[in-house]
Amino acid sequence: MNNSFLMVPAVLAIAAAPMIQAAPSTTVKAAFSRFKTAFIEAYWKQNPESAVAAGYYKYADRLPIPDDAERRRSLAFAGTWLQKLKAFDESALDVQDRIDLRLIRNQLESERWETRVFRAYQWDPSSHNVARTFGLLLGTEYAPLEARLRTVAKRLPRVAPYYAAAKAAIKSPTREHTQLAILQNKGALGVFGEGFLKQVEGSKLSDAEKVQLRTEAAKAKAAIQGYITHLEGLDKALQAKGGRSFRIGKELFEQSFAYSIQADCTAEELYRRALTEKEKLHARMADLAVQLWPKYFGTEPMPAGRLELIGRMVDRLSQKHVPAEGFVAEVKRQIPLLESWVREHDLLELDPTKPLVVRETPEYMRGVAGASISAPGPYDPKANTYYNVTPLEGTAAQKESYLREYNDYTLQVLNIHEAVPGHYVQLLHANKSPSLVKALFGNGAMVEGWAVYSERMMLESGYGGNTPEMWLMYSKWNLRVVCNAILDYSVHVLGMGEAKAMELLLREAFQQDSEAREKWHRAQVTSVQLSSYFAGYAAIYDLREQLKAKQGDRFDLKRFHEEFLGYGSAPVKFIQELMLPKR
Ligand code: ZN
Ligand code: ZN
User: Fold this and answer.
1) Domain locations along the chain
2) Within a 10 A sphere around the Cβ of 275, how many other Cβ atoms?
3) Contact between residue 451 and residue 419 where contact means Cβ atoms under 8 Å apart
């Protein structure tokens, strides 16, 4: 990677600084707009892999090597642009630009912290992997195949030095991340397997180019294999004498939480809140189960324990589900019903010109069962938004277990979360005032928090018939979000072990064994991410309740939703400052 970005002209900042003080706001707006454009271009040049992931391919032929020189360049980049950002007076910017400025600053400060303090490159071997970008270049038709293969050809000779730098960077790996890295890098070998060779063969490249691609790909595979072998050696050593703990500890957890969630509270405060919330949910669920018991179990005596009682009732209601072959059709059927409900109950504006396309998940995206939204990236705004639903596969028992998880009650909540008025509707609103900065550096806790908030809001409006069955099953669903936050903090800060974690998930959150195991693994190899759903949800719910209390009869739910979503994917804390100033 060359260094020229360091010489990106500082014209903007220098020219802008004196102008800004007295200038009319249109001039400030224009100056900040130029700043954003220059920043994003420089950011992509510095981070070509992230650029490809965002759908920007201009620098795709570069593969940065994870060595000290690259980390110095990254720190210098953050320092330079943080300095340039200081030329802008926040209070002189309009609301949308002020949020953009803070998002850019947080992004740069957070990357600097990751390099200087968090240092995952030293202890998480899975942070080194070339597969993702190569996979995107080969699998996305952003340009003719031949052009993409030539881009790949330029990157391939960098794979060997990449893994040499990765080996040198690893100082104190955790065993969990070492094992994850072995698994994922084995997957990386597949990127240069049969499918790749067929692509090369079928292309219109010259014979010489084809030979070169095959040779370089073989060398790249050897480098990946060398990394795997190195990690397997490390794993043996770690098994024998132990190593760094996967638990990141209180200090790093709080810092990471501050950068990625950007909440109004500390991680510890959120954890305590989640514990209280779990208690409230259990109490409510027990009441509902008592109420429902005679209808489903007649005169059979109720279990004495609260958790056993709830568990029996949840199991019973989970048996109501669609047949496996009707799963995708049922999702399709529900979307228009959700849309009419939202319209008729005056909850939000919908945009009929940008319909959601429900489809079966394309083969290349499958692997994990379930449903997801594929939204067009900021560089491809006219593309469709898809709701991918995977038809059920596997044995009869696997299908049955999945259908019980997404039963008649929770399948509706899933559709609310993913589609209407969850992720899909939030995205439509964010796109009304398009901001590349918010699309690229938006706040994940706000995005997930909105989807989780929308579930409860729909039920509060009477969706699902306000029945005790629906509320009980919704509560079980919501308990997952609450327990994710409890698990995350308990594992990384309080030293929770596997047995206690499984007890929390199985006994207190009523999860299936496979789901709980997967969650325990995720809690070990990620940190803070599992807290984001509850953090965003709790903050949005609080903001609404405070506004209700303040505005009394004047509070209007639809107006609240429209204004809230109008700020784009900003941290709830920023939106709160705008909608509910402290004084
Ligand atoms: Zn069944
Ligand atoms: Zn979500």
Assistant:
1) 1-118, 120-246, 261-579
2) 14
3) no
Q: Which residue has the tokens 């999860």?
A: 511
Asked if 452 and 481 count as a contact pair (C-beta separation under 8 A), the reply is yes
- Which ligand gives the minimal distance to the CA of 450? 2
- If phi > 0 it is left, if psi is from -120 to 50 it is alpha, else beta; for residue 443 that is beta
Q: Give the pair of three-digit tokens for residue 318.
A: 């989970």
CB 149 within 8 A of CB 200: yes
The 10 Å Cβ neighbour count of residue 208 is: 8
Strand partners, 415: none
pLDDT of residue 18: 39
Query: What is the Å distance from ligand 2's center to 333 Cα?
Result: 21
Q: Determine the 3-state secondary structure of 567 from DSSP.
A: coil
In percent, how much of the chain has pLDDT > 90? 83
Asked if omega into 421 is within 30° of 0 (cis), the reply is: yes
**Contact (Cβ atoms closer than 8 angstroms) between residue 360 and residue 328:** yes
Cα of 215 vs centre of ligand 2, distance in Å, is: 42
Q: Report the SS3 class of residue 41.
A: helix
C-alpha 511 – ligand 1 centre gap (Å): 16
Q: Tell how far the Cα of 449 is from the centroid of ligand 2, in angstroms.
A: 8
- What distance in angstroms lies between residue 485's CA and the mean position of ligand 2's atoms? 15
Residue 508 DSSP symbol: I
CA of 423 to the centre of ligand 1 (A): 29
Scored b (16 or more CB within 10 A) or e, 539-578 reads bbbbbbeebeeeeeeeeebeebbeebbebbbbbbbbbbee
Helix (H) or strand (E) holding 185: helix 175-191
Q: Ligand 1: distance of its center to the CA of 319 in Å?
A: 5
Instruction: Report pLDDT digits (tens) over 311-368.
Output: 999 999 999 999 999 999 999 999 999 999 999 999 999 988 888 999 988 776 665 5
**Which pLDDT tens digit goes with each residue over 113-137?**
999 999 999 999 999 999 989 998 9
Sheet of 371-374: strand order equals: 356-360, 385-389, 371-374
**Ligand 2 center to residue 46 CA distance, Å?**
30
